[in-house]
Amino acid sequence: MRWAPTISNSLADFQARQAGQLLYQYSITGKLSDASASFDYDQLTFGAQDSWDITPELNVTAGVRFDGYEMKDKAPLKTSFVNRYGFANNANIDGNLVVQPRVGLTWRPTDRLTVRTGVGLFNGGAPDVFVGNSFSNAGVFTNTVTIGRAVGGTGCTIPATVANAAAICAAALNNVQGNKIDPLVSSYLQTNTSALGASPTSFILPTFKLPAQWKTNLSVDYVADLGERLGDGWRFGADLFYGRADSAAYYTDLRLTKVGTAPTAARSMPTPTPIRPTATWPC
């Protein structure tokens, strides 16, 4: 539940518990669980690895890891979203499989020098944020109403055509307690659902791939003997890392559409002409 009363401008209104505006967000079913991100999924992980000594100085280790996901829970289906975009808003990560090959080399040309390198694909971790947003912001059970006092007059912003509008306004804005919502306001939120069809909806595409990144590294370690005064066993090392996204999560607003292109003159800035000061001396 989220509610935020905004007190009017005067101290007298504050002392009298008179609010200027109330923003109230909750589940239209009256159950918090219907508007929360509550879901379960199973992650199955297994892999195989082997190591070969190509020479006494060179070792190669190769393997592959599999991360698979099984999920039965789905976010509420929003019919208006399906009609508008042509696909469902309640896709999940069921069936996602990330195959991660990896290989590493270790070279020890001397007892003091070791060179290591490797490359592999790594899964991006738990996808809870991407999945959770589609549950908590499905635009189906969570509704938001804003009730404010009318500017320069009596009453509030609830249309007069709404039954018991005056009573709802009084319950929302007068004698504010700060720790509870009046049943009249709750009933108004549950029945004033005409705007839900156009409310914001978070979703993941049915073709969504879990984030994964290619990573490679090069490490050099050397054990130095610095002589009698400083002794042996000094370890020096250097590491170089590089990563590149194989698949990444990104956000886009499907409500945005291109309506045109600004003229070239409006998109380019004129090149300024430098002004050099001049002086005129009497002849």
What topology does this entry show?
Elements (H helix, E strand, L loop, with lengths): L1 E6 L3 H5 L3 E9 L14 E12 L4 E13 L8 H7 L11 E11 L5 E11 L4 H9 L5 E7 L16 H9 L9 H9 L20 E13 L2 H4 L3 E14 L16 H4 L16
Features:
283 residues; 7 helices; 9 strands; 17% helix
What is the first-to-last residue Cα distance?
A: 85 Å
Number of helices: 7
Number of strands: 9
Largest sheet: 6 strands, antiparallel
What's the domain count? Answer: 1
- Fraction of residues in H or I helices: 10-25%
Amount of beta strand: 25-35%
Structural shape: elongated
How are the strands of the biggest sheet laid out side by side?
3-4-5-6-8-9
Mean pLDDT over the full residue set: 85
H/E series, N to C? EHEEEHEEHEHHEHEH
Look at the helices and sheets and give the structural class. Answer: alpha+beta
Radius of gyration: 32 Å
Uncertain spans, ≥5 residues at pLDDT below 50? Answer: 274-283
